């Protein structure tokens, strides 16, 4: 309930451009989903020392990703704090390339195709 109220407040008052929960596929999948519509990539870094696979692909409930302009970041952090909710900056939007922890892992168009066409392509071959 707290997260929903926070999201509504951030959307109305603090310039949230996109938001997505991480419960289906984890942080990496949610970032990709956010980038597909406009072919935008991202440059992100892990913000804790948990296992990389758990961090990027763990389907954690009650977490969301937000995209805001840089001039709204501090206001978003303060708002999250007022709701007793943790808030971390993972990185920034890029021109279509994807970089995780300083390593290039491809282009958003590659992941868009994998995400939307792989199962269909396999079924057509059968």
Short description:
With 126 residues, the chain is α+β, with helices and mostly antiparallel strands.
How would you describe this structure to a colleague?
The protein has 126 residues and is α+β, with helices and mostly antiparallel strands. The protein contains five helices and six strands. A hairpin with a 2-residue loop joins strand 5 and strand 6. The N and C termini lie far apart (45 Å).
Q: In one word, what is the shape?
A: globular
Strand-residue fraction?
A: 15-25%
Q: What is the gyration radius calculated from CA atoms? A: 16 Å
Describe the oligomeric state of these chains in a short phrase: single chain
Question: Mean pLDDT across all residues, rounded?
Answer: 91
Distance between the termini: 45 Å
């Amino acid at each position: 309930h707290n997260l929903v109220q926070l999201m509504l407040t951030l959307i109305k008052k603090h310039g949230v451009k996109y938001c997505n929960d991480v419960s289906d596929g984890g942080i990496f999948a949610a970032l990709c989903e956010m980038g597909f519509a406009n072919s935008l990539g991202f440059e992100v870094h892990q913000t804790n020392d948990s296992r990389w696979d758990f961090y990027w692909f763990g389907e954690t409930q009650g977490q969301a990703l937000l995209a805001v302009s840089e001039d709204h970041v501090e206001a978003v952090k303060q708002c999250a704090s007022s709701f007793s909710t943790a808030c971390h900056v993972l990185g920034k939007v890029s021109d279509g390339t994807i970089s995780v922890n300083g390593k290039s892992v491809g282009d958003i168009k590659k992941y868009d195709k994998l995400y939307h066409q792989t199962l269909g392509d396999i079924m057509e071959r059968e």
